[in-house]
């Protein structure tokens, strides 16, 4: 196999079809591992907190820490792959991700678990950006669409299956380990993917002339870590001087990051992109909307377990209508984006708003007596709205940018989405815990989400009318 890949690289040809499909399988496996680990703590957080302690702060940090590290380092990970070689970064990232997963599963304290989640997200940020570059180097241009077409269904199934799998693993209490096997299983899955990647991925040397804005990444990471720490500590222990000071320091660091982006020779986000009104509008709308729905998912999971007393597996199954709605709408809207453009984004916002309003009314009237089947319609509608927005918002956002800026724009948008997930998980759960938890806190938190979705609706007119033609 190694000789086949070496010969293909030397001659500039593509490897045989069976090898290409195997490489695609490795890339998909890494992306699935990332998606599973970004969602499993939504379900397992109450159980983990009950076992380790850490209170509400640990619940908030479990999801936010992974998304924070992934979002901050995603663009940097892509640049490092260009500089040192995608194969090297993919293998390094996958090995580190697997080791960090083991550390998560063995963590004895809340602090060590959060630290391991940060490391896990950081190594994930080395893996994920390399996938499309590896496929581009091994698949012929006229056939690569077949490879890309599998990402949507596989990621959709992973989004549905991840929380359900986590719920059943926690409930099964394998070998008396409780929640830990949902991380420890990555030793087997990640190890198998690592062996396959080492055997299959083509060697590349990278371009050492590629510049990497490490100071910009450090400033962005310090900004987000400081802001999230202030937000979470304030919600958990009260808004005295330390959390307020952390928020002020975070804002000062953000100002430093903005200055760095204007002056760096190779900034994380190209200045020309920020001068594009459509792109900047999509970036801002994306942060706000994705933060809101990330918080919604966390709050609904907490309500199912803490308010309705569901087990992790039962809570995960209760959320499957929402996940199914995302998958259905994502597939359906792939055909509609070319015709509807930014109107599809508005439709998605309005549908999400309608489902959230229905859920608010249901929880407000039924409280902790809310039945399982009653949750199906609003959760399905919310999922349909989210699915209509997820792909179409960013497709439309890059509608007016130059083709040579598409790679930078896509990396920036992906990173921003992860950061929004971290912000949303922390911010909306802050509202939830500060209002006491339970049914009342759920209605208040969901009302905040609905207000954010409503705010996004009039901003849609700032987006480009259409997505780029090649994205249809």
Note the overall shape.
Answer: globular
Helical element count? Answer: 20
Q: What is the H/E string? A: HHHHHHHHHHHHHHHHHHHH
Residue windows where pLDDT falls under 50 for at least 5 positions:
none
Helix content: over 70%
* Major sheet characteristics: none
The N- and C-terminal alpha carbons lie at a distance of 36 Å
Structural class: mainly alpha
The fraction of residues in strands falls at under 5%
Rg, nearest Å: 22 Å
Mean pLDDT: 85
Based on DSSP secondary structure assignment, what is the total number of beta strands? 0
In summary, what is this structure?
By secondary structure, this protein is mainly α. Helices cover 80% and strands 0% of the residues.
Textual characterization of the structure:
The chain is an all-alpha fold. It contains 20 helices and no strands. The radius of gyration is 22 Å and the shape is globular. The protein starts with a helix and ends in a 13-residue tail after the last helix.
Blueprint of the fold:
Elements: H1 2-11, H2 17-52, H3 55-84, H4 86-106, H5 110-127, H6 130-138, H7 144-149, H8 151-172, H9 181-200, H10 214-237, H11 241-263, H12 271-274, H13 277-307, H14 312-318, H15 320-334, H16 337-340, H17 342-366, H18 376-397, H19 406-434, H20 438-459
Question: What would the keywords be for this entry?
Answer:
472 residues; mainly alpha; 20 helices
